[in-house]
């Protein structure tokens, strides 16, 4: 007897541009400081995952409101392009954001003598697809990305609380790590060290971090290397 495997959804196996079909999830809470010795401020991380290339995009949100998610979605669209499909769970902030986007689309459609560009953008709305309630296995792709992000975050910081600018720098570097993971096996040729990663679909070359001094050679510790 062999286990029958279900087929992948069409949005997972149809070749397309990065982030045209995207899954999104939240993780947290995390904490950062605004001023020295100030009280920690709570925040959350929204992680967008391309359903085709497995590329990741990370945004920081101050709360779990629909307005905060729409703001994160606008920043994501400004940097990665407008997706045609977003898959997510049935969290209330996602459902509220869908209602507000639908109302905004209807508002644009009812305006008279609207501009041609505005009309085309309103007609090309973003489709939301919600997974069934209490079934995180349907969102395994972005759940795995959340797990990897938390692992990098905890192994780097532990219980240290950073300033906001350092916090944003760290989560962006973690995003680069997620986009540098292997999608294929290494070549058998010892001279061929190139491997396909999600970063190749984004910038058409490997993502390489800026060189930093070793911890053992630094004369003093600062908040940028904490």
Notable characteristics:
226 residues; 7 helices; single chain; Nucleotidyltransferase, domain 5
Fourth CATH level, the homologous superfamily: Ribonuclease H-like superfamily/Ribonuclease H
Largest sheet: 6 strands, mixed
User: What's the SSE pattern?
Assistant: HEEEHEHHEHEHH
Determine the N-to-C terminus distance. Answer: 54 Å
CATH topology: Nucleotidyltransferase, domain 5
Give the CATH class. Answer: Alpha Beta
General description of the model:
The protein has about 230 residues and is α/β, with parallel strands linked by helices. It has a single domain (about 10-225), classed as Ribonuclease H-like superfamily/Ribonuclease H (Nucleotidyltransferase, domain 5, 2-Layer Sandwich). Helix content is about 40%, strand content about 15%. The chain contains 7 helices and 6 strands. The protein has helices at about 10-15, 65-80, 90-110, 115-125, 140-155, 165-180, 200-205; strands spanning about 20-35, 40-50, 55-60, 85-90, 125-130, 160-165. Strands 1, 2, 3, 4, 5 and 6 form a 6-stranded mixed β-sheet that branches. The longest helix has 19 residues, at about 90-110. The mean pLDDT is about 80.
What topology emerges from the helices and strands here?
Elements (H helix, E strand, L loop, with lengths): L9 H4 L7 E13 L7 E10 L5 E6 L4 H15 L4 E4 L3 H19 L5 H8 L3 E4 L9 H18 L4 E2 H15 L19 H6 L23
Parallel strand pairs: 1-4, 1-6, 4-5
Antiparallel strand pairs: 1-2, 2-3
């Amino acid at each position: 007897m062999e286990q029958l495997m279900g087929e992948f959804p069409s949005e997972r196996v149809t070749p397309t541009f990065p982030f045209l079909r995207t899954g999104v999830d939240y993780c947290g809470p995390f904490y950062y400081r605004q001023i020295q010795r100030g009280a920690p401020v709570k925040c959350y991380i929204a992680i967008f995952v391309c359903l085709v290339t497995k590329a990741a995009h990370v945004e920081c949100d101050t709360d779990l409101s629909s307005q905060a998610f729409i703001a994160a979605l606008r920043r994501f669209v400004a940097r990665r392009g407008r997706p045609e499909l977003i898959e997510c769970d049935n969290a209330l902030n996602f459902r509220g954001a869908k209602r507000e986007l639908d109302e905004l689309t209807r508002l644009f459609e009812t305006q008279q003598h609207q501009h041609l560009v505005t009309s085309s953008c309103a007609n090309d709305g973003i489709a939301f697809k919600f997974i069934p309630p209490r079934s995180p296995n349907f969102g395994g792709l972005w759940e795995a990305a959340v797990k990897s992000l938390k692992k990098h975050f905890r192994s780097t910081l532990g219980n240290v609380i950073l300033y906001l600018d350092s916090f944003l720098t760290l989560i962006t570097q973690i995003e680069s790590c997620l986009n540098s993971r292997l999608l294929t096996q290494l070549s058998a040729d010892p001279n061929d060290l190139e491997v396909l990663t999600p970063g190749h679909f984004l910038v058409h070359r490997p993502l390489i971090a800026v060189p930093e001094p070793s911890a053992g050679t630094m004369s003093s510790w600062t908040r940028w290397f904490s």
